[in-house]
Amino acid sequence: MTTSTSVLSLEQLIQLMEGSPLGLYICRPDDIDDDRTLRLVHANKTSETLTGVPASQLIGKRSEENFPGLRERGFIDLFFRVLRTGVPERYEDMYYADEKVTAAFAGDVRQLPGGMVAIWFENITQRKQVEAEAARAVGLADAARELEERLAVIERQRGIIEQLSTPILHVWDDVIAVPLVGSLDARRVTHVMDTVLNEITVRRARFALLDVTGTEQIDADTAQHLLRIAGAVRLLGARALVTGIQPAVAHAMVAHGLDLSAMETFRSLRDALRECLSAFSAGRPIRS
Predict the structure, then answer these.
(1) How confident is the model at residue 286 (pLDDT cuts 50, 70, 90)?
(2) Is 179 found in the same domain as 105?
(3) What span, in angstroms and rounded, lies between the C-alpha atoms of 37 and 49?
(4) Does residue 138 sit within a domain?
(5) What does pTM read for this prediction?
(6) How far apart are CA 41 and CA 62, in angstroms?
(7) Separation between Cα atoms, residue 54 and residue 262, nearest integer Å
(8) What is the CATH number for 96?
(9) Pick from 39-43, 71-75, 198-202, 219-223: least confident
């Protein structure tokens, strides 16, 4: 490329680049030892389109007068390095901004005969914006995927926690106990019910003791949930005994008019177990 450029006259190069999609600036320093003296001697029509600055406003002026930010952005050093070494250089993603031009550029810088330097360039601002939007879209997709993965982990952990928070205790032959700790929302009630009914079916249990000693508050919703569990247990031919209702909870339930008369309740797990053993000894039917 360097050889092909050197055999072209300046006029031929200018004519060749006039219809090019690349912008072209040709500059020459008044003094090769003074990088403040670089002047623009030619600009093609495409350069006006890419920068938005008419060539007539630039030609004959010092480069830093035309574009004050060139030195700060490293362009002046680049131009003079090529002038002094003769080695072409390529620049990528060089951002420039001043009162006249704000854009990102990419291009080549090559030495010309007669102590001049040619600067080919393209305005890559739109391309960078598209790339940034694409990267942002990929980032959003990655974030959405990561969120889904985290939600899946949370869901798995929630399932493990539910299993740990609803242990099934085999306290006697045909008797299972379920300690209920914390709140009973609809999701947890479904899990408790599925677990209890499965254990009753597999072990042919006759009694399910629902121990609410660890439940500090039983509101209307919780009471309805307990009734649902007890009703499901009865449908399998077993008895559901609710144990461990604390005095403060009983007082609050009365104050709120909650009615658990449809359930068998016992003061403690011991009392409920005693009822189970008594039923076994007396040969009483399962249903109360």
Answers:
(1) low
(2) no
(3) 26
(4) no
(5) 0.45
(6) 9
(7) 91
(8) 3.30.450.20
(9) 219-223
6, two tokens: 């050197």
Residue 59 falls within a domain, yes or no? yes
Show the domain range for 200. Answer: 164-282
- Beta-carbon contacts of residue 141 (< 8 Å; ≥ 6 apart): none
Encode 44-89 in three state secondary structure.
Answer: CHHHHHHHCCCHHHCCCCEHHHHCCCCCCCCHHHHHHHHHHHCCCE
* 197 and 228 Cβ atoms separated by less than 8 Å: no
Q: What is the CATH number of the domain that holds 211?
A: 3.30.750.24
In angstroms, how far is the first alpha carbon of the chain from the final one? Answer: 101
Assigned token pair, 192: 């408790």
Q: Are residues 7 and 120 in the same domain?
A: yes
274 is a domain residue: yes
The residue out of 124, 152, 177 marking a domain boundary is: 124
Are both 116 and 168 inside the same structural domain?
A: no
Q: Is residue 214 part of a domain?
A: yes
- Rounded Cα–Cα distance for residues 160 and 155 (Å): 9
Domain count, the chain: 2
Q: What is the distance between the alpha carbons of residues 120 and 158, in angstroms, rounded to a whole number?
A: 61
- Would the pLDDT of 256 be above 90? no
Q: Are residues 219 and 110 in the same domain?
A: no
Please work out, in degrees rounded to the nearest 5, the angle formed at the alpha carbon of residue 182 by the alpha carbons of 176 and 187: 80
